[in-house]
Design brief:
- The protein is mostly beta strands.
- The chain has a single domain, classed as TonB-dependent receptor, beta-barrel domain (Maltoporin, Chain A, Beta Barrel).
- The strands form six sheets. It has a 22-stranded antiparallel beta barrel. A five-stranded mixed beta sheet has the order 3-9-10-7-8.
- The radius of gyration is 25 Å and the shape is globular.
- It starts with 15 loop residues before the first helix and ends with a strand.
Length: about 725
């Protein structure tokens, strides 16, 4: 609906010119100050540097492998950016890892809580309490990957909020990732790496209770399976009841989660693994708070403009089978098969606007039903060889994706309004009118190749390219007022190139160029096959091992997003492709162990994310939910001896600056600083008791702006008690 521009506020925290100058200065400081430190530590000549794909430093992570457990807070290897087991220092793009130890110490329940340990990542909205979305380097993403496979290939968001019971590590590849993953957003990719079965028996179970009636049980058990050599299994599970501080009718928000997993090594050269995930969600349909006069009032963070009957129910199922075979020491064949299916239904009242005096919130009643199913196949070969005096690691693959989504929605034209200041419940249900019966199908084929080349003298080169082609089909069985897009032919090319230079052993410098590709799903006026949305990023960065167990990484980047779809200003039934957006900034992340028992993880980000070309929104407006400055730090200390042996303490602070609430910049939400703390006691190797507290100062703030009628407030002071038992 139209916005009142008389109430428009300036959410800029520094002007563009000054911002760029400051970003440039910070870039120089972050990238080259570390060089000075390194040269102060070592005067070694370049010819003394030894490069090895398998080399790692430190005592704990020596046995680490990509996708496996991390000792402490610092990971050294990852496969998210390359699909090969590669040291992070040999990756010419920013990759940040949140290990399971961090999740356990912070007792993270939400994916968004875990990701606030990573610079340039913010929670982007819950889609009315239904799912997780995130802002990465200024751009929203509504999906993520599990073990390298994108979720919900046929839709635009996951139908459930993510459970962390079976998560080994959470990895964020910042910037475009289409060269290996196909369609995607330019800000980056979140990849959730799951816990694998172990032959040695292991297990853990958590019992939790907390503020506002929160209750949760979570566990995971793993062991060899008798009767078959090399076969191991794991089952992870969780169930929770969370009325939350925004409970309106005494009913719980509940989630159940089960994840069986198997691995089998029939021979030393062959590996087979399977992971399944099954989630059910039943929650309040909650849009949060409504903006008025350029801001979101925080006098009552529990204020609700819906009705108690507004509910959302959903399921999400995921199964992944991976088979790998080493033909010899230098060639590996890999096949990954994935199936996903699920759906949701809801009945809700939704805010649609304010009356002329801005004292009443107008509403509508809506019901919806949707199902989806998708299959994905990845066939890859990894080959290592010498050519022209250089060592090569080549990945080549083909991917086939077939996704189907059925969306049936009904809607009423009116529902009684409620007071903005003191909304009251109790209006009766009204009749629903048919809005649409839409089916959508995506069929995509991708071909990709990547080469990691060791050039010697401390130099490494990464080059890769992907080509995607396919068709997007639409089916509609019911006449509605909504325009149905025509079938679209899709194609796109996504190159990437990166150069790594290691002048001395503790320091890595890199520069890279990467791209993204995403098919248009909007109905573009008079265009049967609109050009896909594309993104490109230029990035320079560094990684410095301050000690063998502590790493500082820094990056400067510029991302341009092209062919952004916007509503047609004349005929709002359609869209037009005219938009361009840009995000540029600098960031730094720190992770590892400072001293024995003293661990730390955190990051800092300076970001300038704006509209640079558009026919609907003003050029220069800030992008939604992207603060100019944000940062977090979390640290724990485990007492090593004496009377306090077994005790651990932790504390952290998260700061997020002012953010625009919509692309019109018609309102903004203020910055906030949140203080968290924890204390836990290890009775022995098999039992722990912990108390975690969030928002110690009971600060009122908006955590996740989405649009004028969807602004999720942060929780007040909350306390969570956990009892953990381990085998």
């Amino acid at each position: 609906m139209p916005h009142d521009h008389d109430n428009r506020v300036d959410v800029g925290e520094f002007d563009s010119a000054c911002g760029v100058n400051r970003l440039t200065g910070l870039t120089i400081a972050l990238l080259f100050a570390s060089t000075t430190v390194v040269h102060a530590q070592s005067d070694s000549a370049l010819d003394e540097v030894v490069l090895s794909e398998l080399s790692v430093t430190g005592t704990g992570p020596a046995a680490e492998r990509a996708g496996g457990p991390v000792v402490g807070y610092r990971a050294t290897r990852s496969a998210t950016a390359t699909r090969t087991d590669t040291p992070l220092r040999d990756t010419p793009q920013s990759v940040q890892v949140v290990p399971r130890d961090v999740l356990v110490d912070q007792q993270d329940i939400r994916l968004g809580d875990a990701l606030q340990n990573v610079s340039s990542v913010q929670p982007g909205g819950t889609i009315q309490g239904r799912s997780d979305t995130f802002i990465i380097r200024g751009f929203r993403t509504q999906t993520y990957a599990i073990d390298g496979v994108l979720l919900n290939q046929a839709g635009t968001f996951s139908t459930v909020t993510r459970d962390l019971a079976d998560v080994e590590r959470i990895e964020v590849l910042k910037g475009p990732a289409s060269v290996l993953y196909g369609r995607g957003d330019p800000g980056g990719l979140i990849n959730i790496v799951t816990r694998q079965p172990t032959l040695v028996p292991s297990g853990d179970i958590n019992l939790q209770a907390g503020s506002f009636g929160f209750r949760r049980v979570q566990g995971s058990v793993s062991s060899a399976i008798e009767g078959v050599d090399g076969l191991a299994g794991r089952v992870s599970f969780a169930g929770q009841s969370d009325p939350t501080f925004r409970n309106f009718d005494g009913r719980d928000n509940s989630r159940t989660f089960v994840a069986p997993a198997f691995t089998w090594n029939p021979s030393p050269d062959t590996r087979v693994s399977f992971i399944g995930e099954f989630t059910r969600l039943d929650t309040q349909y909650d849009e949060g708070l409504v903006a008025r006069n350029g801001r979101v009032p925080l006098d009552n963070v529990a204020r609700y403009y819906g009705e108690p009957f507004s509910r959302y129910n959903s399921t999400a199922n995921f199964g992944l089978l991976k088979v790998e075979h080493d033909v010899n020491a230098n060639i590996t064949l890999r096949e990954v098969l994935n199936a996903q299916w699920g759906g949701f239904n809801f009945l809700a009242t939704r805010a649609t606007g304010l009356n002329n005096t801005k004292t009443m919130v107008t509403r509508r009643e809506t019901a919806g039903y949707s199902t989806y199913a998708a299959v994905d196949s990845q066939t890859e070969v990894v080959a290592k060889f010498d050519l022209l005096g250089f060592r090569h690691t080549v990945l080549a693959g083909v991917e086939y994706t077939n996704g189907y989504r059925h969306s049936y929605t009904t809607q009423s034209t009116n529902y009684p309004s409620v007071s903005f200041q003191n909304p009251a419940f109790g209006a009766a249900l009204v009749g629903l009118q048919l809005q649409g019966d839409l089916k959508q199908k995506n069929e995509l084929n991708g071909l990709y190749v990547q080469d990691q080349i060791d050039l010697g003298l401390g130099l490494q080169l990464l080059v890769g390219v992907r080509y995607d082609t396919g068709t997007q089909y639409y089916f509609n069985r019911t006449l509605t007022s909504r325009a149905i897009p025509p079938n679209q032919e899709l194609s796109g090319t996504s190159p990437r190139v990166g150069l790594i230079y290691r002048p001395v052993e503790p320091l890595t410098l890199y520069a890279s160029y990467s791209t993204s590709f995403k098919p248009q799903i909007d109905n573009v006026l008079n265009v049967a096959n609109p050009p896909p949305e594309t993104g490109e990023q230029y990035e320079i960065g560094s990684r410095l091992d301050l000690t063998p167990d502590l790493t500082l990484s820094a990056a400067a980047f510029r991302i341009t997003r092209n062919n952004v779809s916007a509503a047609d200003p004349v005929n709002t039934t359609y869209s037009v492709i005219t938009g361009q957006q840009r995000s540029e900034g600098v960031e730094a992340d720190l992770a590892g162990q400072i001293l024995p028992g003293w661990k730390v993880i955190g990051g800092i980000s300076f970001l300038d994310a704006r509209i640079t070309r558009d026919t609907t929104f003003a050029v220069g407006n800030r992008l939604v939910g992207a603060p100019a400055f944000s940062g977090s730090i979390w640290s724990t200390y485990q007492f090593q001896e004496g009377l306090l042996l077994g005790w651990n303490v932790g504390a952290g602070i998260t700061y997020v600056g002012r953010r625009a609430g919509d692309l019109n910049n018609s309102y903004s939400v203020g910055g906030y600083a949140r203080l968290d703390a924890a204390v836990f006691y290890d009775l022995n190797d098999h039992a722990r008791f912990s108390i975690n507290a969030r928002n110690l100062t009971d600060r009122r703030y908006i955590e996740q702006p989405f649009n004028q009628f969807n602004n999720q407030p942060g929780a007040p002071l909350s306390v969570l008690a956990t009892i953990t038992a381990r085998l």
